[in-house]
Amino acid sequence: MKQNIILIAIVAALFIRMFTSCQNFLEMPAQTSFNVDSVFSKYQNAERLLFDLYQFQGKALATAHNMKLNSSAIADITDEAICYVAQNGYTANRVYAGSVTSTWFTVNGGNGEDIYDNHWKTIRKALILQQNIDRVPDATKEVKERIKAECSTMIAFEYFEMFIRYGGVPIVRKPLNDASEYAILRSPVDSVYQYIIKLLDTSIANPDFPAKVPDEKEFGRLTKAFAYGLKAKTMLYAASPLFNSDRPYTDFSGNEKLVCFMTYDKNRWKLAADAAKEAITYCESNGYSIVNNADKTKNYKIACEDRPKFGNTECIFGTYQGTNIDKLYWTGRGTNMSGYSPTEPTQNQVEKYQNTDGTSVDWTNTITTPANDPTFPYKKLDPRFHQSIAYNGCLWITTAPTYNLQIYDGVDASVANGLNGPIVAKTQFAYFPRKFLNGYEVTSAPWTPLSIYMRLAELYLIEAEASNEADGPSERAFTRLDVIRTRTGMPTVSRTLDQAKLRKFIENERSVELFLENHRYFDVKRLKIGDVFKGPIYDVRIIKQKNNTYTYTKYKYHDRAWFNHWYLHPFPYSEVNKGYGLIQNPGW
Amino acid sequence: MKRLIFLFALFVSFSVLYAQEKSITGRVTDDNNEPIPGANVVFKGTTTGTVTDFDGKFRIKVSGTSKTLVFTFIGFDPKEVDVANKTILDVQLKMSTVGLQEVVAVGYGVQKKATITGAISSVKGAELVRSPLPNLSSAVVGRVPGLLSVQRSGQPGNDETTLRIRGIGTLDNANASPLVLVDGVERPFSQIEPNDIESISILKDASSTAVYGIRGANGVILITTTRGKEGPAKVTYSGNFSLQVPTRLPKFLNGYDFSRMQLEAQLNDTPTATPMFTAAELEKFKDGSDRLFYPSTDWFDLMMKKSAPQTQHNVNISGGTSVARYYVSLSYLNQGGLWKEFNTDYSNNDQFKRYNFRSNLDLDITQTTKATISVGGYSSNRQTSNGGIFSSILSAATNGTPGVWDGKVVTLARANGRNAVIATRGGFNRYVTNSMNLNFGLNQKLDFITKGLSARITTSYDSDYGQSRGFSKSSALYAAERIDINGDGVLEPILRKASEDGVLSDPSETFTRAKKIYTEAAIEYSNKFGNHTVSGLLLYSQKKQWYHSLSYPGIPLGYQDLVTRLTYNYMQKYLIEFNMGRNGSENFPKNNRFGWFPALSVGWVVTSEPYVKKLISDQLLSYLKLRVSYGEVGNDKMGTSRFMYYPGEYLSGGGAIFGEDAVSKTGFTEGKMGNPDVTWEKSFKQNYGLEMKFLKDKLTFNADYFFENRSNILTARSTTPTHVAAVLQDAYNIGIVENKGYELEAGWSSNIGKVNYWLKGNYSFARNKVVFKDEAMNAAYPYLNRTGRRVGEIFGYQFMGFFNNQKEIDEWPQQFAKTQRPGDVRYADINGDGVVDENDQTPIANPAFPEINYGFSGGFSYKGFDFSVLFQGAGNFSMSVGSEMLLPFSAYGSAMDYIQNRWYAGSPDNNANATIPRLTLNYADMSNYFNSSLWIKDASYLRLRNLEVGYKLQNSILKKVGVSSFRIFLSGQNLFTWDKLKFLDPENQASQSMAYPQLKVFNIGCNIQF
């Protein structure tokens, strides 16, 4: 009987529990993880949101592989470079074939050119940080104001990146948490442009936003110099023919303002030129300067590849990602450099370099070198060529034992094939990239290039281009160009160029100076000269003859696909299909 | 011996019941010595009688003149026993047919099969042990209706079968897992020793699963372990020795064909390119004169053994008295792997060892108090190679390296370092798992309050401990090169040591721990008033589970349930049952946390009606039961999400690199947003069932039709614009899925002379339909919508053959804005807009999980011989071909043998039978390889799943040495597979995630009873 009572008591107790304390049994215990309140209750935590703000944009230029186009570089889908075909997944090849779909191009992580979602993720992070940073009790007003300006700049940066790819996009002004707020449609190009400028002006007006990072440990964070620079760059894009036009690049009836201004305004060029000038003035009065040491052979390399502490005074936004093993992806395939060569410079790019005396190499006919002088055609080229492109006979490994590239095949069985030539190393092309590899040629050396997004030289080029468009050729343009050229040992620009010729010259100069820095793809598009992408793309065939001379024969490697609707990116197919009213760009 | 046991049992009974007089007591059991509750015991020619109790016991007063007792129970042959001068009587009834007498495990209890009104199918442990399989989840397949399955891998210790009850009723297969309970407590079951299984019940409809309420929607699998039965100690040993071989391995091109095809691919891409192989080189691949530099490596031949051994031993002792019964079991399993050894200092082979133990004890503390103590668990030790061997084989060209040369692992420049043997030499992983479960239960009869009332409590404690250790080691690699050693201008082959042997690393170690405390308390009532039988159950249970790999690891996972069941039947003819769960889940906010889950079911045994008996001869139709059930159950799971309502969680992660010296800074990333209105999935289920027996119960036929409507499905929104949904979205209740289907089951058992034989078959079909999902409906091209389709239905392009020439290309719609070439795949322009693009995808294939599962089995016994066979098949499911199986030569990888059947210029039959597009080395443009009806293959199959031949020695000599029975048997598993796939086992995966092959097992075993 006793045990009966005990048992009944237990059973009863458990049932009572069900009806009394059950809510607590399943309740989430008090605060166990961070929420928005606890994050902003301490600067140390809030700062981690700031770190995460840079998760995507912080990688700046994709010198690492796998960032875009899956191991290819954006350069590969321009006339700068070509992607070796044999590696599965080097997706630049898809662009050559023309089989570009919206899902592939803007959704898949790392496979296409852009990841549409990431822009919005960063914008949301910036908005939340900006909205809440004042709640942090243990930070000074200066720190908070700087973060606010940084967030505005980051938001502007993301809108700029979307603007140049998609045209007009939805404008989101606060972090959205409710699906009912979602019906935000695309804003016209003009609104997005105005919004970017407004955000940048806010940042520029902020006295706590530093021109440079005060501590080298913060290198990689956005600064006011960048806000100035981005403003000029945004204005340059807004002034360029793709957007600054009274008609869209392709028929888009009713929605034209989503892809261009629908007005041509020459003054946009002037605004860009003045913004560039203002930016340069601001930068140069705040410690930035064009790298221009007496030893002209290294200036270009320092400006593109080195960190500020090693003399790079012109980096406005770049990051240093540390040791990187992905050098292998840049060097030639199957050579003793053991690379994968997804990015091999084209002959088209090589021909953009002039000789130091202002002349150009004539590649129309086969070039035969003197005996044992393989570098003959390249000897007098722009020093930037030698720092950007590796070629047959060039000194590859500069420390003992030194090593010169041998990118040739023997004319017949009696002449040995070059070790890096098509047959032995199964390379396909005559050039390898060298920019961003300078000093790291030895296979075992850790590769640690700067990842650069914007440098002062670009602002010089912007001012030159915009002032030529606004006012025609003038000393204002020429002097800016001269600085960029002479610091590497090139002659000054001929003052006889008319506006059209100077336009062409500047386009070429940008190709040379900003090679592999992810500008060309967008330059060609904003200048609306998309046919450049069609090719033909050339390479040279190098044969070593029995008499130890070398013959260089230019040949057409291939043509590429290009469609006018490619001027702007497609929105992801899945995004358009969500049905909230996102209008797809024309042609996609 | 049997007689001895009988006498012993009598003796025991006698000693216990010595005091009783003038009445006859005894126990009624079935063939398996299991008690038959509810059997009628009547003096012949009178109405004086009684009914056996839950343990099959009866007591009947001797009165009147009749000296013959008649024992009857539905489904058994009646038995008459002369009781003159007897006071104790144990009676064994012979089963007249399959089924009805059975007691079946149902949620929180057992029920007689005869009175069940829900949809439950069950399988006995004795059937499961026919399959010589280490994993219990695989042994069930094909033996019960209503269960759909896929076993992706045969890897020792990692070979669990994915089971789905009645298919998939929600939007994501991953959230459709059934609830599994072992002895009433939620536990995994795949590592339980099959010999310890009494039965497995599959609860399918709302009626049977409503008691599990908020977690019942995906169906429930109940495992009941073996318990001791009254009787002398019975010792049983069973031992098995098996050889395992793969059911099928993929076939690759040999070195010569590989090189030839690779060259063809290169020249297809760039006709002007310098050929990668000269004719002389190809000849060397062909004639095998220089196998170091021109190899032809059959990776499976090089690396895999012909077979791998497996041994299983189980010894169990069971028995007991009327006050204490026990079942104690110990098992050992050792499953070897198929890999050859390439290391001297450690094994690279897969291996799985498992020790299972179980001790189930039942004590009658007093006449009215029963205690059950069950302890079960296992300790296992699994080893695998550190590298993914199958993915390495897929990634390694057969012409790339001889693999091993002169005992050295060799690479050639051509292979870019790819050598599958390396994967066996990178170290190994060991996984130790210890799992211990304890159940303690007390059952108190409360007849003193009112007859038939009882109460019980059960508490269980489960503890799991896992240790995983990874040992890595780099092994020396040699590069084969030709070098002019003597300076005579002649190149000699050498093996240059390219990397050194490493040292076995200290293990990287991770631990997992989990524990669970579960308590239930119940009040039960069961009574009979004349022809009216009623029973009731009121039960409370709660669970807390500490499980370290959960999100919110510090917070134990909790559940709380209140359950009630009411049953009524009139003469076992009219049956009615009401089940209800009131359950709560931590996943939901306070006001949405607890739900009611009611289900009602009714049954009618038509053949018990006198007018039906008059109409149809009992000889023809002996039994017909109709069942209908309807009710609501729920599902509270979406992946591993917890506290789905809880907003604004920030997690450590993200961040970026800053500073001129690259310092990595970890950020905070915003977690889920939290949905304050989230609640459970609601599933409304209907079931219509039919049970029939014909021809003196020789033929049985059961059929069930079900219909499920699942709404409020937990899923993330998919139409929220990216500019809003820039953070992780949490669960919303926004899907509706319908799932319907049927199950058929038939059996025949009879004899021809002394040969007893039986045939059985079952067939299950389940098809779902997405009624609503968060999808922006595409009005222009409605066929693109997932709504209205099956869950997981594969979408893609319609393959229309290959382009044979430029003319065909010109006449065909433009595909993906891409320049087509002869040999490229043509796709249908579904919407007829003149271009083939993303809008031309349609449903092209069945989902990756089967809709059909069927099994048929048969067997016979004659004297000591017995024979049984089981065929099992699955249908309506697909396999997608991927990675190197789709893309030959990609990234230095392998090429399948079937690519010889490619499209190529100059084919003798003009490519009429080509099945593979033109070969290429350039896979950046994937348009020939998009999801299309070319690459989604029908994976339907039929297997000879199990075959067993046994012989039972009945020898007096054996009996003299104490062996009561000795059975020896040969069995086999997966002996034949018939399918359309041909190149791979249909349950495996045709991609880099290709798993360890499904196994064919040849087994010899014995079973000895003492």
What does this structure look like?
- The complex is a heterodimer of chains A (588) and B (1010).
- By secondary structure, chain A is of the alpha+beta class.
- Chain A is 37% helix and 8% strand.
- In chain A, strand 6 (395-397) and strand 7 (403-404) form a beta hairpin.
- The mean pLDDT of chain A is 87.
- Chain B has 1010 residues and is mostly beta strands.
- Chain B has a 22-stranded antiparallel beta barrel.
- At the A-B interface, helix 1, helix 2, helix 3, helix 4 and helix 5 of A face strand 28, strand 29, strand 30, strand 34 and strand 35 of B.
Task: Please specify the SSE layout and strand pairing.
The complex is a heterodimer of chains A (588) and B (1010).
Chain A lengths: L1 H19 L1 H4 L10 H4 L3 H11 L27 E2 L9 H6 L4 H5 L9 H17 L8 H26 L22 H17 L18 H16 L27 H18 L11 H10 L9 E6 L23 E2 L1 H4 L16 E2 L14 H4 L2 E2 L4 E3 L5 E2 L4 E2 L11 H4 L6 E2 L16 E6 H16 L3 H12 L12 H15 L6 H7 L10 E8 L5 E9 L14 H4 L12
Parallel strand pairs in A: 8-11
Antiparallel strand pairs in A: 1-3, 2-10, 4-12, 5-9, 6-7, 11-12
Chain B lengths: L1 H16 L5 E7 L10 E4 L5 E3 L5 E5 L6 E5 L6 E4 L5 E5 L10 E4 L2 E4 L7 E5 H4 L7 H4 L7 E4 L11 E4 L13 E4 L2 E2 L10 E7 L2 H4 L10 E6 L5 E16 L8 H15 L9 H9 L11 H5 L4 E13 L3 E13 L14 E14 L4 E17 L3 H6 L9 E2 L2 E4 L15 E19 L7 E20 L4 E7 L8 E8 L8 E22 L2 E16 L9 E14 L3 E12 L8 E12 L4 H6 L5 E15 L14 E9 L4 E8 L10 E14 L4 E13 L2 E3 L14 E3 L2 E17 L2 E18 L21 E3 L2 E4 L3 H6 L2 E2 L9 E3 L7 E2 L5 E4 L6 E11 L2 E11 L2 E3 L2 H4 L49 E3 L2 E13 L2 H5 L4 E15 L19 E11 L1
Parallel strand pairs in B: 1-7, 13-16, 23-26, 44-46
Antiparallel strand pairs in B: 1-4, 2-3, 2-5, 5-6, 8-9, 10-15, 11-12, 13-14, 15-16, 17-18, 17-54, 18-19, 19-20, 20-21, 21-24, 22-23, 24-25, 25-28, 26-27, 28-29, 29-30, 30-31, 31-32, 32-33, 33-36, 34-35, 36-37, 37-40, 38-39, 40-41, 41-48, 42-47, 43-45, 48-49, 49-52, 50-51, 52-53, 53-54
